[in-house]
Design a protein that fits this description.
By secondary structure, the chain is an alpha+beta fold. 28% of the residues lie in helices and 39% in strands. The protein has one domain: Nuclear Transport Factor 2, Chain: A, CATH 3.10.450.
């Protein structure tokens, strides 16, 4: 498991070079690990990562200067959701400010396509 995680990280990291891209690469890797946690027994396909951005403090939080509170990315994939339902799912995945840990994942919409 660690070997495949590290191989994915190297592959994704080698494709992107600037700081913003590296942060998104880390977010994508963490989001994949989050999805792995409830798709262990089945394969899933990521269709799209989108809307990667930071969440900042505002004047109500800190009058001195804005700071990054956390990061968010949206992932669209085919696979199982946290309840075990198979289909096309869209999750909003939130990370801590250091972009080192998933704080939560929220299914924003379920798109079930029957062919």
């Amino acid at each position: 498991m660690i070997g495949s995680w590290f191989a994915r990280f190297l592959l994704l990291f080698s494709r992107k070079t600037n700081s913003s891209d590296r942060k998104q690469t880390v977010a994508e890797l963490l989001a994949r690990n989050y999805l792995d946690s409830f798709n262990r027994q089945s394969k899933y396909d990521i269709l799209e990562f989108s809307d990667f951005h930071c969440v900042m403090t505002n004047q109500d939080d800190s009058i001195t200067k804005p700071q990054i509170q956390g990061w968010v990315i949206t992932v669209l994939y085919n696979g199982r959701n946290e309840e075990g339902a198979v289909g096309k799912h869209k999750y909003l995945v939130a990370f801590n400010s250091r972009l080192s840990k998933v704080m939560t994942g929220i299914e924003t919409t379920s798109v079930n396509i029957h062919i």
